Structures are given as structure tokens and as C-alpha cells.
């Protein structure tokens, strides 16, 4: 039977686990921003979808184009959420493996390094998707009066409907 690791050893593992835990807090903040962004895209798309019945025929194509852009942006944010969540899972796995390695007494350095590198790669790719979505959002942003023949009229998001 293996001897239990001394308290000092466990304390050292806890110290090592602090940095990944801070990283998890940062990823959680990013996921919060991404979730809000996805929600706003979906809300905006629903408003645009609701306009099909009342939109003049000459503006339908503009409306379809806007909805296609919203769909692309929603997919990019969705991928970003998935990748950042995967990164958080990998970082959590680093902490778990740290403790298991300490308790069992095996060398898990290589496994921890691989997990951490994978976490950083998935976080980086997730942030690249987020950057691409922000770029698309600002590329088609119009501030000021819309051009009558090309841009849809400014829309106000309606107040939420109360369900019965």
C-alpha cells in the first residue's frame, strides 16, 4: 500500500493548481461575453425574420442578405463558445491530473504539458473565431442615415412579449 503524500506535497500541488484556476476565471469571463453576443445576434435575427411579412418586395433581398450575415456570425460565435468551453475542460483536466499524479505518485509532467498546450490551442482558435465575428459585425456596421436603395431601415428591438 502506498503511503499517503505528506501535507506539504498536497500544499505544493494546490499552489501549482492556482494558476490554472485563474485561467478558468478568465475563460469564464470570455464565455459570458460570447453568450451575450450570441443572444444579441439571435434577437436581432428574430426581429429581421419578423419583417418578411411587411417588407416591400424590393427590400426582401437585402433582408435575406442581412439574415445570412447573422447566421454566419452566430455560427462563428457558437464555434468560439465550443472551443473556449473545450479549453476550460482541458484546463480543469490539468488540475485533476495534477492531484491524481501527486496522490498516486506517478510522473504526469508530459501528460499535463500536452493537456495545457491543447487548452491554449483551443482557447486561441476560439478567440480567432471571436475576432472574425467582431470583424464581420463591424464591416457591415452603418452609423448614420441608411442609404435608401441598399440598407434596411434602422430597427428598434421590440420590447419582450409576455407569455401567457
Please tell me about this protein's structure:
There is one protein chain. The mean pLDDT is 86. The protein has one domain. It has 164 residues and is mainly alpha-helical. It is rod-shaped. It has helices at 7-50, 60-104, 109-139. The chain is built from three helices and no strands.
**Which segments are poorly predicted (pLDDT under 50) over 5 or more consecutive residues?**
none
* Biggest beta sheet summary: none
Q: Structural class of the secondary elements?
A: mainly alpha
Please provide the ordered H/E string of secondary-structure elements: HHH
Shape: rod-shaped
Please give the oligomerization state of what you see.
single chain
Percent helix range: over 70%
Number of helices: 3
- Cα-atom Rg, whole angstroms? 24 Å
Count all strands and give the number: 0
Number of structural units classed as domains? 1
State the separation between the terminal residues, measured CA to CA.
63 Å
Task: Give the overall average pLDDT.
Answer: 86
Portion of residues in beta strands equals under 5%
Amino acid at each position: 500500500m502506498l503511503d499517503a503524500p505528506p501535507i506539504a506535497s498536497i500544499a505544493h500541488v494546490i499552489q501549482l493548481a492556482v494558476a490554472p484556476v485563474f485561467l478558468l476565471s478568465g475563460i469564464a469571463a470570455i464565455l459570458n461575453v460570447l453568450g451575450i453576443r450570441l443572444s444579441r445576434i439571435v434577437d436581432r435575427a428574430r426581429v429581421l425574420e419578423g419583417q418578411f411579412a411587411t417588407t416591400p418586395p424590393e427590400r426582401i433581398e437585402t433582408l435575406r442578405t442581412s439574415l445570412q450575415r447573422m447566421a454566419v456570425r452566430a455560427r462563428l460565435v457558437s464555434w468560439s463558445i465550443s472551443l473556449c468551453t473545450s479549453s476550460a475542460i482541458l484546463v480543469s483536466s490539468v488540475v485533476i491530473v495534477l492531484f491524481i499524479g501527486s496522490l498516486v505518485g506517478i510522473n504526469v509532467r508530459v501528460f499535463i504539458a500536452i493537456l495545457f498546450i491543447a487548452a491554449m490551442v483551443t482557447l486561441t482558435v476560439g478567440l480567432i473565431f471571436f475576432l472574425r465575428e467582431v470583424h464581420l459585425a463591424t464591416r457591415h456596421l452603418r452609423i448614420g442615415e441608411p442609404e435608401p436603395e441598399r440598407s434596411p431601415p434602422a430597427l428598434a428591438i421590440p420590447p419582450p412579449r409576455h407569455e401567457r
